[in-house]
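ZP: hey, is the benzoic acid complex queued? I don't see it on the tracker
AM: it wasn't, my bad. submitting now with these inputs:
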Amino acid sequence: MKRRTTLAALAAAALLAAGPAIAQQPKLKVGMMLPFTGTFAALGTAIDNGFKLYVKEQGGKLGGREIEYFVVDDESDPAKATDNINKLINRDKVDVVVGTVHSGVAMAMAKVARDTNTLLIIPNAGADAITGPLCAPNIFRSSFSNWQSAYAMGVEMAKRGHKRAVSITWKYAAGDEMAAAFKEGFTKGGGQVLKELNLPFPNVEFQALLTDIAATKPDSVFAFFAGGGAVKFVRDYAAAGLNKTIPLYGAGFLTDGTLEAQGEAAQGIYTTLHYADSLNTPRDDAFRLAYVKAYKLQPDVYAVQGYDAAQMLAIGLNAVKGDLSKRAEFADALRKATIDSPRGKFTLSRAHNPVQDIYLRKVEGKQNKVAGIAIKALADPARGCKM
Ligand code: BEZ
């Protein structure tokens, strides 16, 4: 008994000697607000997997603190977004929120994060406003802005000699912004957008719109869909025979994480994105191997963004030794960092959005193979960001 007491006293003394900062660090509460149901369910799961993989690789700790997760299924529903993030902040008292996929949900989250000074890391949603008027010192993105991936494809399609395009997407923030960015790049290169077609999110009744495309006879189509909707669109486009006469292009979400289900219908489609399946770098190879081992699934762009969200959190936390009250130092470390991502190294812009290479990819078999770099080190213009 005496010996046990002495050992306990020695252990306590050792912890104190290590310094109060280490001895007293409570678990870091991380709120994961992602879609786990609906058309974006697979995207939410991949982000969650990627984030947790990085944490596991660090021995379950970031910045010296163990991680405790609080999970909310946001259902990609903007109407529930404010309540959902408020639950994480007020009920669960999380230290940081990681989320989400859908731009409309993310904008509601960003407003709450700004008002409550909650640390928010966005692992997908590309809403331009978040690196525009909604930008804030406590909000970071590990993914992209909608402008980045769609603008690059507009430029690329014009370079390929296309002159008359139709765009098609869902009617919501991300769809509207991707269509506008595509048009900006395409018209700059001398192209003309004949029609901007859309349908409400997350509808997948494409038939009338495909008939409209056939009647309009453009020389190319640009599409933004993702997840389950992307699978159905690519299959319907091919089933209508349009892929034989009018080449389909897209922001890379059209064919990322979807190729197993799209099969033959996706073959040969060119897209632009900040990740691809055949980068063949030691960093990406190691990530892909670890991901397959952990989840028995191939990773995709969403898994990479989740992984990098955790990396970014680790960079900030290491700089402040786990003390999140040092918010200015946390942000400063991220602004100066080069993030060693599976996609390739990137830095953050002044609006806290990745400055990154946008790859041109071509679907071959079950891979989005790199066909070149569409635009190197592309930065979102951060229109309206005052920071
Ligand atoms: C968005 O809503 O921002 C989004 C969703 C899925 C893929 C890409 C962007």
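AM: back. The domain at 28-144+279-348 is CATH 3.40.50.2300 (Rossmann fold).
ZP: great, adding it to the tracker
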